[in-house]
Amino acid sequence: MTIRVSEFDLRYWEHRHTEDHERRPEGFEWLASYGTSVVHDAVNRHFQKDDVILELGCGTSGLMHDLAQDGFSRLKAIDYSQAAIDTQNSIHGDADIDFRCMDVSNLEFENSSIDGIIDKSTLDSLDCCVGVDDQSAARRAVQEAYRVLRPRGRWIVISLRDPKRRVEDFEGLFRLVDVVEVRTNDASPCADYFVYCFEREA
Ligand SMILES: C[S@@+](CC[C@H](N)C(=O)[O-])C[C@H]1O[C@@H](n2cnc3c(N)ncnc32)[C@H](O)[C@@H]1O
Which residue ranges does the record assign to the Methyltransferase type domain (predicted)? Predict the structure, then answer.
């Protein structure tokens, strides 16, 4: 049987999140948590507490739950893995967070209905996918985010990818506001990851 790459990716994540549900019922955090000062600072610098904030590819991360605990009140999170959404609802179902199963390249939100977007390692995972119509999967996600984000809305991207490459997908749609390079070890020759903020062009 031949399967398309996108189907393979979804099967991979579905399998991984289903296994994680058994092994790590408390969830799994990629790269950094809200408790990491650079993430906490970026969120509080670029978002207001009453902003409608959307997390793309939430997995089983506790990020949205931590934002809710800190007073952010209008939170949405999507992932295309139903297993990830089920885990989120079982861990954080009591918090007032709208978790939904959805593909980042086909967001079921109205145009300009979101004030801020955050993604942690989701664009990185899309970088591993093959796109369609000569467009990378990450570029398609950026176009869809542009549609649902309000003009001048901000997107915090926490990513392994260096600025030379990361910025390419945003060209013409978003401007880079700032980027922080994070090194957990000062002696390290390269960054561990980057925290970007992009602003949607008007
Ligand atoms: C590297 S994990 C990061 C998870 C979470 N953001 C974190 O920081 O712990 C990437 C996540 O993106 C999700 N994902 C990948 N492609 C997606 C797509 N096309 N639409 C929605 N979610 C996707 C995966 O299911 C996975 O949960």
Answer: 54-156
